[in-house]
């Protein structure tokens, strides 16, 4: 469990986690669960199926469940005569847009069975543990009544109207577009979309005439899922969306399930960064929308991860950061590292900026004011970042992107490390007792992969409020790893109720000063190397 295990590399850490159980993080809100209890916690899901679910609502958090859509095979089924220029004809507009760029395909994943999708075909890749994703190339039309995408035969199909489709009219795929197909609880809340070829009578009788014609492919996704927790919003929402369709350069129409104005409002900049078109509200819009192709569902690589070896264009999480930066700050000046005015001042006149994530309710820093003073005495300009204020995410972006260091206790708000400047800024995560590895894997490893300096401050027993609740030497505070092991199938109960929800921290100022001092001296070194022209930092 020791944090040092990660030194063997990411793979080790991830395997370790997988060996211990699947992490599932969730915010559950009353609209998702019958219960009126509103939780906003990161949830840990062991795969021990004997473990009682934390609150009735979270059943199904455990191991992957077989479902009608859990086939592991994948196949491209061609429904009509192949047309040249193939390679996913659905991306045709993007191809033209590219002007001499390499041929655009709908599926950007390396080695995917769907990457050489011929025109007029449906292909689903169900090989991944986390998510299924389907592609349709050809004349795709929505059928609101059955929440389906129908693939119509090419207009001049040899053999006469609809004849080509007749042979293969039974092709039908069903998919719930979300990244946690192993998580039965949430997956069953995701609307199931049917993809099928139009039946001959549909294709010939003038059904599904287009009410709205789009010249870019549809990208069917959900605004639902664990949508009230910032970690999930990015980990299971925007990052996978970007992974799956960034190569189309906004020439894709988001067709959203569970569309809601709050989602559209809170994440408006990111949504327009993904797509140049208005979002189609797939559940409420009864019109027939026609597209030259479709992507349904998203890829998923890892916690807040972009695995560049799986993408045709080698994009990395730094590119995702840049995408966010472009979405929020059109005038970002790359050469000055974010274009914040103070960043351009010569080092002597500028103190590095440090943001402290101020949590409420649980995993609170009890001596936060003293910690803020400490940081100031070390030499930082300190900003206490209040959370859950209802401020738009653009305001959070504006703050965090100006920080040289972000400090906070483990929690979903740390997802905003994605806004920090790669190669320049730092993340310092305070890991409460019992969740050191969880903290490292969810935020530490992804932050380091984005080129941030990462510091983890593991609190000691004496810094945890649990030391007031348990007698001295109690296993829960003295040896959390053993305490967890001893719980067996009930490990999750302990993690959730005690370590995640039942703990505040009070930082040892002497020890935490060392962490802050390291961040500060690294910042100074960086400034000096910039001044001396030896700036070896990755260009943003
Ligand atoms: C990235 O993907 C490749 C190919 O699937 C895989 O072999 C590799 O382990 C992945 N890298 C990471 C860091 O997960
Ligand atoms: C991606 O990386 C591979 C291997 O390093 C390289 O062969 C390929 O040309 C790169 N592709 C792009 C689009 O940069
Ligand atoms: C943690 O601090 C918050 C805010 O002061 C308080 O409401 C909560 O009861 C504390 N929790 C524990 C376990 O001490």
Automatic annotation (TrEMBL):
Ranges for region Disordered: 71-110, 329-353
Keyword Protease: no
Transmembrane segments: 23-45
Keyword line: Glycoprotein, Glycosyltransferase, Membrane, Transferase, Transmembrane, Transmembrane helix
Gene Ontology annotations for the cellular component aspect, listed alphabetically: Golgi membrane
Coiled-coil segments: none
GO molecular function, one term: pentosyltransferase activity
Membrane association type: Single-pass type II membrane protein
Bias-annotated ranges (Gly residues): 83-92
Associated pathway: Glycan metabolism
Listed PANTHER family: GLYCOSYLTRANSFERASE, GLYCOSYLTRANSFERASE FAMILY 61 PROTEIN
Name of this chain's protein: Glycosyltransferase 61 catalytic domain-containing protein
Organism classification: Eukaryota, Viridiplantae, Streptophyta, Embryophyta, Tracheophyta
Gene it is expressed from: LOC101781379
């Amino acid at each position: 469990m020791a944090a040092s295990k990660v030194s063997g590399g990411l793979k080790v850490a991830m395997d370790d986690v997988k060996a211990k159980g699947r992490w599932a993080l969730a915010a559950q809100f009353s609209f998702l669960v019958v219960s009126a209890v509103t939780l906003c916690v990161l949830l840990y899901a062991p795969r021990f199926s004997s473990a009682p679910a934390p609150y009735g609502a979270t059943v199904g958090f455990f191991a992957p469940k077989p479902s009608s859509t859990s086939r592991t095979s994948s196949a491209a089924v061609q429904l009509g005569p192949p047309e040249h220029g193939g390679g996913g004809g659905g991306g045709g507009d993007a191809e033209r847009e590219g002007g001499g760029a390499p041929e655009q395909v709908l599926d950007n994943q390396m080695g995917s069975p769907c990457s050489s999708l011929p025109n007029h075909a449906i292909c689903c890749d169900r090989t991944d543990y986390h998510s299924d994703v389907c592609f349709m190339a050809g004349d795709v039309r929505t059928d609101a009544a059955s929440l389906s995408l129908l693939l119509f035969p090419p207009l001049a199909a040899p053999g006469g109207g609809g004849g080509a489709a007749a042979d293969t009219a039974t092709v039908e795929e069903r998919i719930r577009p979300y990244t946690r197909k192993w998580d039965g609880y949430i997956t069953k809340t995701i609307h199931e979309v049917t993809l099928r070829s139009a039946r001959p009578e549909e294709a010939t009788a003038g059904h599904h005439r287009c009410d709205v014609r789009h010249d870019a492919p549809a990208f069917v996704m959900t605004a639902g899922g664990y949508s009230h927790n910032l970690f999930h919003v990015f980990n299971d929402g925007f990052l996978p969306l970007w992974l799956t369709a960034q190569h189309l350069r906004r020439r894709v129409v988001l067709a959203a399930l569970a569309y809601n104005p709050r989602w559209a409002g809170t994440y408006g900049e990111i949504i327009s960064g993904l797509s140049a078109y208005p979002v189609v509200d797939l559940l409420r819009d009864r019109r027939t929308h026609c597209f030259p192709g479709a992507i349904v569902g998203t890829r998923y690589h890892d916690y807040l991860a972009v695995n560049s070896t799986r993408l045709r264009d080698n994009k990395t999480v730094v590119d995702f950061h840049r995408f966010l930066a472009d979405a929020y700050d059109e005038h970002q000046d790359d050469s000055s590292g974010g274009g914040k005015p103070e960043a351009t001042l010569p080092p002597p006149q500028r103190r590095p900026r440090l943001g402290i994530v101020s949590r409420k309710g649980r995993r609170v820093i009890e001596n936060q004011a003293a910690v803020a003073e400490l940081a100031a005495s070390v030499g930082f300009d300190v900003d206490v970042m209040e959370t859950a204020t209802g401020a738009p995410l653009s305001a959070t972006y504006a703050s965090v992107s100006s920080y040289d260091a972000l400090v906070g206790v483990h929690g979903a708000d740390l997802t905003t490390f994605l806004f920090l400047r790669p190669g320049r800024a730092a993340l310092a995560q305070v890991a409460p007792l019992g969740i050191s590895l969880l903290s490292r894997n969810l935020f530490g490893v992804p932050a380091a992969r984005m080129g941030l300096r990462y510091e983890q401050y593991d609190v000691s027993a004496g810094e945890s409020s649990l030391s007031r609740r348990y007698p001295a030497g109690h296993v829960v505070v003295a040896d959390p790893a053993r305490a967890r092991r001893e719980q067996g199938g009930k490990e999750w109960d302990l993690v959730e109720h005690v370590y995640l929800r039942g703990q505040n921290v009070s930082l040892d100022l002497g020890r935490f000063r060392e962490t802050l001092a390291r961040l500060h001296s690294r910042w100074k070194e960086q400034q000096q190397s910039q001044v001396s022209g030896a700036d070896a930092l990755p260009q943003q």
